Structures are given as C-alpha cells and as structure tokens.
Amino acid sequence: MSTRRQFLVAAGALVIVSRPSASNATPAMMQEAVRKVVGDAQIRKGKVTLDLPPLIDNGNVIAMSVSVDSPMTPTDYVKAIHVFNEKNPQPNIISVTLGPRAGRAMISTRIRLADSQTVTAIAQLSDGSFWQTSRDIIVTVAACTEEIS
Amino acid sequence: MARAVVTVPPKAKRGEIIEIRTLIAHRMETGFRHDSYGRPLARDIVTRFVCTYNGAEICSANLFPAISANPLFTFTTVATESGTLAFKWTGDNDFTLDATASIVVE
Predict the structure, then answer these.
(1) How far is CA A24 from the centre of its chain?
(2) Radius of gyration of chain B measured on its C-alpha atoms
(3) What local confidence, expressed as pLDDT, does residue A19 receive?
(4) pLDDT tens digits, B24-77
(5) Per the CB < 8 Å rule, is A88 touching B74?
(6) Which of A7, A87, B7, B74 is the 20 to 30 Å CA partner of B50?
C-alpha cells in the first residue's frame, strides 16, 4: 500500500465529513429532534392525519392541519402533537399540548418550508403511545433562508 | 404594533365542541436570513402560545421559526361554562401579547 493512496483516501474522507451542512437540517437531525421528544418509545404508524397540499408555490405560507383519531375522553386523549421537517434550518415546526378538554384532536396553522421534503407529524396519546404519519410536499419557492434585496 | 385577532363563538350549548381561531401580527424573523449587506438578521419569533379557559389551561404550543409570519393557530375546545378565554403569546425580545374573548354557555 503506497502512502500516496492512503493520503488520497484520507483526504477524500475528510472532504465528505467536512462538507458544509450548516444551512439546512438533515433527515438525521430530524430523527434526533424526534428522539428528544419521544425518547426510546416505539412510534407506530397511523391514527394521525396530516393535511398539506402536495405542491405549493410559495414555501413561506403553507396551510397545515393535523388531526388525530381519538375519542378525547378523560381516560383516552391526545396529550401532544409534534410536527417535524427534514430540510429546514431547524427540524422542529410546532409542538402542541392538548388535553381531554379539546373535544377533538385537531389543530391547524401555517408553516414555512425551505425545500421539497417530507413533513412528519407525531401524536402522543394519554396511554404513552406515539403515532406518526408523513407527507411529501413539493415546494417551488423556498422560505426561511432567502435573502432580502 | 402587535395585534391579535381571536375568533370564539359568542354563544354555545353546553358540551358543544367549538373551534377557536387565533391570528396575530408578527414578522416571525427566522434568524437564518441576511440583509442586503450580507449581515445576519437576528431571530425574532413568537415562541409560546397558551390559552386558558376560566383560568385552566386548555391548549398550549411551542412555536419554531418554521411557523409563517403572522402566525395563525386554530384548535378546538368543549364549551363547559360561561366565562373568559384568555390567550397569551410570548417570544423573543420580551414580546408579549394578550387577548381575551368571552363566551356564554347555555
């Protein structure tokens, strides 16, 4: 093995490791943010409905609503709804705390997305279980990081 | 400058699920943008929203820069008794904004 080859391999690895990723979050960062909220609990698919347009012109204002299939009784209700993204500068979008007094587990707001990506909504139920659903959305004009001219 | 618009039905039947819509004027500067000279613009966002119904908290939310300017937030609650719904937003640069709405439950 020549030292030149070793040097090239090492240099190549360095380039890959130090590629700038400061501007936007990555799916791995989203997973980290999800784990911070969920802990070690298992996240099952279902129960959550995430309403987002499949394609949006302007990433600055995107109508989003999240609802969870739950009877919302004092013994069986949705405790919290968390929404995450993969490619904005930060992985969090919103975290809502609800209770049985909500009557219906449904919230809506308007969000910003910096790129076409997958948005994930996670619901925490009163029994401690977590449920999630994901939606793909195509964004033609990005938000968050655009420059002011 | 900051202003809030809260929509709560003025009257409701006991046990009815009512929808509450809130909208405030706030620029929600993300902290990730730069001005025309390339200088970073400091983050200025609303970070927390809390709604109480006759003093008891019924809904709260942590907001992040991914929420659009002039944040809109809609949720539901069960009309239990006549009284006041109080809304409070807090954020960067000591931002606070309060709003109230009254409801008559029959």
Answers:
(1) 13
(2) 16
(3) 43
(4) 999 999 998 888 888 999 999 999 999 999 999 999 999 999 999 999 999 999
(5) no
(6) A87
